[in-house]
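Q: Sequence in, structure out?
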Amino acid sequence: MRVLTFNLRFANPLDGANQWDYRKELVVETIFACEPDLLGTQEGTVPQLEYLTHHLHGFVPLISHREVDPTCQYPTIFYRQEFQVEESGEFWLSETPEVHRSKSWDSAFPRMVTYGLFQEAGRDLWFYFLDTHLDHISAQARFQGARLIQQFCLKKNLPLILAGDFNEPPDAEVYQELTRPELGLVDSWRVLNAPEDNPPTQHDFAGQPRGHRIDWILISAPFRVTKAEVIGYNHQGQYPSDHFPYVAEVDY
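A: Exactly. Output:
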């Protein structure tokens, strides 16, 4: 099973030649090239997500539970239509997680988690797949958001896959919180790579890496990582986003 996390970069008219209308076809092409079974996107605005829904043939967006708001950037799950879904939902990373667009702890924007309970076709295992995007400004908001995610996962007591843009490097507070032993999550990248090997997952739309490895896929048992790759897919130097997609292949 292949899991992909991909920060789409929101539809910003200030991006000039890299604004959404000039790269949306390449985004779809990139996703298909990665061959995911489960996809977690971040920063998608409603028109962007509608475009993906219409063009990612064979995939279903996990949005039936959602209060669609055109002012939001949503982390959104897409899944191959062969998967079964028993439960789905989302919550805001705030002191009032049930309140739409709520934010706390000096978060620059409302942030949220979306999740589903999935079963792959022909398999018995049910597992949760969660997708999130933590705040890019407030360290306290990132940490408290990670705490909310941890509390949610501990209550579920089922296998987990957590993907997203965490806006912190590995070994920082959020990473430590989400990889605490009692939660059972491990970093899919580090399962196969040395701790000092941390390729940045952001770039400047020209493929020049900057910053840190902030896009992660964390997994619990019984999932076993067989491949992990930061994807540099581009078309003649044009990149689909200012983040590199990251894919992890897992077996179980």
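The chain has a mean pLDDT of 97.
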